[in-house]
Amino acid sequence: MKKILIIGGGAMGSAFSIPCLENNNKVTITEPYNKAFIKDLSSKKKFHSTLKINLPKKLIFKSYSNKIFNENFDLIVIALSLPGINFIGRELKNIKNKIPILILTKGLKFDKKKNKILTISELLSKNYNVKNLTVLKGPCLAKELANKKFTNVVVANKNIKIAKWIRNQIATKYYKVEFSKDVVGVEICSAIKNIYSMIIGAGQNLNMSSSLFQKSIIEIKYLTKYFKGDDTTVFGLAGIGDLYVSAAGGRNSKMGYYLGKGYTFVKAKKKFMFKETVEGEKLAREIGPYILKKIKKKQNSFDEQLSQISFK
Ligand SMILES: NC(=O)c1ccc[n+]([C@@H]2O[C@H](COP(=O)([O-])OP(=O)(O)OC[C@H]3O[C@@H](n4cnc5c(N)ncnc54)[C@H](O)[C@@H]3O)[C@@H](O)[C@H]2O)c1
């Protein structure tokens, strides 16, 4: 039995607790930010308002404080969304022991000082000196995992022994775990698929979406190589695998659908997706200006373009 701490009680962090508990681990979850999740997790029935299930009784909820890192956990899991990454970097900066840390968060950050796009593991290690990082990515809808539906993900670490050790703590009959040494490629693919699923969603019929799917793969391959990832990763779970699930039915492809209908991003968000986070949009705003500069396109402000995207 290992002691696992999950930081982030959103849909993914909470769903991830299920295979961890099934492996007889002692699992603690903490939520640093969202009051609704704190309420869900600290309630008697542990009914999760996004997942619409009662989480297992064995799941321990603890209020967030950085003192929690003084407890002797064997594995710390980061399940915050991208806006929480700098926060958790600052919090983990001073932890003394080298507990393995597993990152579930998908996304990339633009580092203004370095004028560089960083993956999440790069950001945590370079800017906050966080050690012993492993990433877990791949096609995984939190609701499906929470309901123990078949899910296949990839754990990436240059040291495959650590990836295997993590697999042993989390894999179940329905949660299958593969390995990869290509940490950068896995992180790049799993982040940018959110942008491409929006593009594929913009196709107004299946023939068109298939064409956009194929073009997306070519671009994902180009970008993965550009960031020094292994381009074969594009054909794995973090690449094509995750792109499929996001394009088939996620918030990004839903936004793409409205863009394809000719709505601007701003109008579609206001009218149809007011409360929903579109991760692809956030990422496009984060890395778009840098990428556009790199490919030397003379365009006005990226914000202006994003609000004017229309596939008419
Ligand atoms: N690796 C995988 O298999 C996998 C699968 C699905 C989703 N994800 C990723 O997991 C992450 C979380 O997804 P989710 O579906 O649980 O989202 P969610 O919206 O349900 O939960 C978001 C979590 O991030 C926290 N958060 C948000 N903004 C914050 C801030 N400013 N400071 C601190 N914390 C903040 C919230 O409190 C909450 O804990 C996303 O990056 C998503 O892409 C990973």
Question: Would you write up a description of this structure?
Answer:
With 312 residues, the chain is of the alpha/beta class. It folds into two domains: 179 residues, 3-Layer(aba) Sandwich (Rossmann fold), CATH 3.40.50.720; 125 residues, N-(1-d-carboxylethyl)-l-norvaline Dehydrogenase, domain 2, CATH 1.10.1040.10. It contains 13 helices and twelve strands. The strands form three sheets. An eight-stranded mixed beta sheet has the order 5-2-1-6-7-10-11-12, sandwiched between helices. Helix 7 runs antiparallel to helix 8, helix 7 runs parallel beside helix 9 and helix 9 crosses helix 10. The longest helix is centred in the C-terminal third of the chain and has 21 residues. It is globular and about 50 Å long. The mean pLDDT is 93. Bound molecules: nicotinamide-adenine-dinucleotide (NAD). Nicotinamide-adenine-dinucleotide binds next to helix 1 and strand 10. The site of nicotinamide-adenine-dinucleotide has 30 residues, from helix 1 and strand 10.
**CATH fold node name of the largest domain:** Rossmann fold
CATH architecture of the largest domain: 3-Layer(aba) Sandwich
At the fourth level of CATH, the homologous superfamily of the largest domain is NAD(P)-binding Rossmann-like Domain
Measured distance between first and last alpha carbons: 56 Å
C-alpha Rg (nearest Å): 19 Å
Key attributes of the depicted protein:
N-(1-d-carboxylethyl)-l-norvaline Dehydrogenase, domain 2, globular, two-stranded antiparallel ribbon, 15% strand, alpha/beta, 312 residues, Rossmann fold, eight-stranded mixed β-sheet
